[in-house]
Every structure is written in structure tokens, then in C-alpha cells.
Amino acid sequence: MSSVEEEDFFDRLPDQLLLLIFNKLQDAKSLARCLLVSHRFASLVFQTDTVFLSISPRKHNSKSSHRLPVNILKILFLKFIAKPLQFFHHKIAPNKSPARNSGNLSYYSPNEVLKHFKDVKSLHIEVPSHGGKVGLEGIGSLLKWKAEFDIELKNCVVLGATSFQESIDHFQNQREDIVEQVLTDDELKLRVVWTISCLIDASARHWLLKEVLAEHHRLENVTISDINKQGKLCVGKDQITDMRNALKSLATKESSTERSRVPDLSMKLWYVPVLELPETGFSMKGATLVVIRPVDGEIRDLSDDHGDFSGFDGEESENKAFDEAVREMMKMRKNYVMTMSSF
């Protein structure tokens, strides 16, 4: 009886099955604990090809703890609010003034934890949020973004609202016509702040991604999100290949910035004061959608841009509402088109 009780049934499992279990586990901290279980576990854990890592924020002293948000807001105010802005419906207005770098990353590099996972192919990194929702007040406010990169930004989608909640009239099946309205100057400036804040977050995560790619050569897809599920950066196998080809020169140019350069951009903005979403039972006030693409040397017409802009982070029911909001706002004829210089 004692020999049966002492038998380790995991010894009967083949290595490939154990690796499948570890790949389902994903969490780097849990995988690290598995190292202590047995010599066999320790020999297999680092062969895992799917890893999720949540990394901790840097500790700042009291004098510097708020430096990043203050610098960001100062740059946004001086460049995009204090100076006159020119916006046109269905017309592009170039902005000639460059913006400066915004500060340091608010979290540690994940390479120290990941250095032993040499076989990882699919990686999801979760970073701390650097602060609140810039320019938004209230518990019900919303600011979400999703960005795709290769060497530089490919596209970014920003979805914002001053209020996002379940609709009282969600039982109604008939959709009311969307009432379009022109933004006031202050409302438009606020949405510029939202957009630039998201772009700064995205470019900082892209810089972090390049650090990771320099140390892990088998990666095929990477997602970098934040603990508050505000924004998500995604790269696939083709984008990673392009980045690797240019990684050396990029690292030389940007070794001290801790943020990737954002290229000249074309942006298209939709706005509706109240947006009812009967399919999912939610309602948005001040609903705003911004689709961002690089100019690539020439002004780009986004009027026929109908890309796949789904996949925001959030709870499942909220994600469906976000996708519904994007679909409905892109049907609107009235929009703002503008450009932004690189920064």
C-alpha cells in the first residue's frame, strides 16, 4: 500500500503532455513555482512556448513619482492646446511643430524574468498603467486603444467616451437614428489629448517590445497590454520579422528615448453626443472614434478605410459593445480628418 501511495503519477506522463499543461498554465510566476516541484519539472518548464508575464512598476521617490504624467500633460498642453489648432471636416491640415520625448518608462524590463524562456513563441506582457485616463473624469468614462506595429506604427484605433454604461432602454430592439453634432473647439482639443496620450503609451510599449525581441529569437506573436485593460499593442510573425531586420539600426537611433518615434500621421475622427447600442445594451455619451495611420510621405485618404478595428481589451460583454460602437460610428458621414507631425 505504501508503495502505491508514494508513486508519482506524473512520472507516467510523457514530456510532451507535461509541456502542453505548462503552455496552458502560461503565467510566468506559476511556471517559476513549478521549478521547485521536481528535477523533471525544472528541466521542462523553460521549454514552454506560451508565456504570460505581469511586470511590476518601478519604485520612484516622492520627488519623481509624478514626473511622467506631468511631463506628458505639459507637452500636450503647450503643443496641442495652448497653440492654435486648425481642423477641417473631410480636409487635412498638416501640423509642422515637432513634439518632444515624454519621459521614462514606468515599469521594469521583463527580460530578467524571461531570459531562461528561450523557446517562447507566444508572449503576452501586462504592464502597469502609468496613471488615470488623461482628460477624463468620473467612474463611467472610457478610453480604449489598440495599436499594431512593425518597424513603426501601422495603425492605431482610439475609442473614448465621457460616459459608458448599461442603457436604461436596452430592451428596445429598434435602433434610433444617430444624431450627429459638430464638436466645439474645447471638445475637439480634449479628444486630441486622448489621442496623443494613447500614442505615447503605444510608442513606449513598442520600445519595450524591441528590447524583448533582442533577447528572444523564436517569438512569433507578442501582445503588450496594461493591468487596467486600457490599451493593447499587437505584433504578429510578419511584423516581428520586419522588426528584426531593422532592430540594430533602430536600437542605435533610439537607445536613450525609451519610446519609439511616432511617424507623421493621418487621422480620422468620428463623434456622436449620445450613442445607443441596442445589440449589447450599452450607451455612450461623447462617443469618439479615432482611426490613425502613418502618412508614409504623402497625405492618405481614409474615406474608404474599412479595416478590422475590433479586439479592444475589456470584459466580454464590453468588448462586444466596443465593436458595435466602432461599426456604428464608421457608418457616419460627418467626420474630422487631420494630420499630425512625427514626435
From TrEMBL:
Pfam families: F-box-like (PF12937). Gene3D superfamilies: 1.20.1280.50. SMART domains: FBOX. CDD domains: F-box_SF. Transmembrane segments: none annotated. Residues 7-55 form the F-box domain. This is F-box domain-containing protein. The lineage of its organism: Eukaryota, Viridiplantae, Streptophyta, Embryophyta, Tracheophyta.
